[in-house]
Specification:
The protein is of the alpha/beta class and 207 residues long. It is 38% helix and 16% strand. It is built from five helices and 15 strands. A hairpin with a 4-residue loop joins strand 14 and strand 15. Pathway: Amino-acid biosynthesis; L-cysteine biosynthesis; L-cysteine from L-serine: step 1/2.
Length: 207
C-alpha cells in the first residue's frame, strides 16, 4: 500500500512539473510575441488569451477523461470571462498565443500545432453538421492567423503559413505560403523571403 501511494505521489509531482513547464512556455511565447509587455507577471495577470488557453488545458483533460458536461461548463465560464470560445475537444499544442483574445472561436475537432499565434476575431469553424466526422481545420506548427480571419472546414494550413486579416479560407494552404482575401488566394513569398517577413511587408495581410 505504501509503495502504491508513493508511486501515485510521484506521478502527481511529475504532472505538476509538466504543468508548470507548460505555463512557463506559454508565458515566454506570449511575452516574445507581444511588444506591449516584457513582464511574465503582467502577461499572466492581464492576458485574456492566456487565461482562455489555461482553462482550455484543464477542460480538454476533463473532456478526455469523459467528464464532458463539466468540461463544457468550464469552457463556457472561460468564454464569459475572456471573450474566447474554445471547445474542450479541440487539440492545442505548445506555446500557443491569442493576442487580444476577444471574439476568437475554436471548434471541437480543430487541431493546432506548436508555436501558433492567432489575433482577435479568428474563427476555426466547421462546414458540416455531421458529428461523426472531423469538421474543423488543422493548423501546422508556426502558423500565424490575422485578425478576423475565418478558416472553415476540415482543411490543413501547413507549417509556417500565414493567413491574412479578414481572409476566408476554405481550401488547403501549403506550408510556408501566404493566404489573403475573400475567398482566400494562396501564394508563396518571393524566393528568399521569410514568410514571417511577408506578413509585415504585404498590406493585404492586415486589411
Amino acid at each position: 500500500m505504501a509503495l502504491r501511494i508513493d508511486h501515485q505521489a510521484r506521478r502527481g509531482v511529475d504532472a505538476l512539473r509538466r504543468a508548470a513547464a507548460s505555463v512557463r512556455d506559454d508565458l515566454d511565447a506570449a511575452v516574445a510575441r507581444d511588444p506591449a509587455t516584457s513582464s511574465r507577471v503582467e502577461m499572466a495577470l492581464a492576458s485574456p488569451g492566456l487565461h482562455a488557453l489555461w482553462v482550455h488545458r484543464a477542460s480538454h483533460a476533463m473532456w478526455g477523461a469523459g467528464l464532458r458536461l463539466p468540461a463544457r461548463l468550464l469552457s463556457q465560464a472561460a468564454r464569459s470571462a475572456t471573450g474566447v470560445e474554445i471547445h474542450p475537444g479541440a487539440s492545442i499544442g505548445r506555446r500557443f498565443f491569442i493576442d487580444h483574445g476577444m471574439g476568437v472561436v475554436i471548434g471541437e475537432t480543430a487541431e493546432i500545432g506548436d508555436d501558433v499565434m492567432l489575433y482577435h476575431g479568428v474563427t476555426l469553424g466547421g462546414r458540416s453538421l455531421d458529428p461523426t466526422i472531423k469538421r474543423h481545420p488543422t493548423l501546422g506548427d508556426g502558423v500565424t492567423v490575422g485578425a478576423g480571419a475565418k478558416i472553415l472546414g476540415d482543411i490543413v494550413v501547413g507549417h509556417g503559413a500565414q493567413v491574412g486579416a479578414n481572409a476566408v479560407v476554405t481550401k488547403e494552404v501549403p506550408s510556408m505560403a501566404v493566404a489573403t482575401g475573400i475567398p482566400a488566394s494562396v501564394r508563396r513569398p518571393e524566393a528568399g523571403l521569410d514568410p514571417e517577413q511577408a506578413l509585415y511587408d504585404d498590406p493585404a495581410l492586415w486589411i
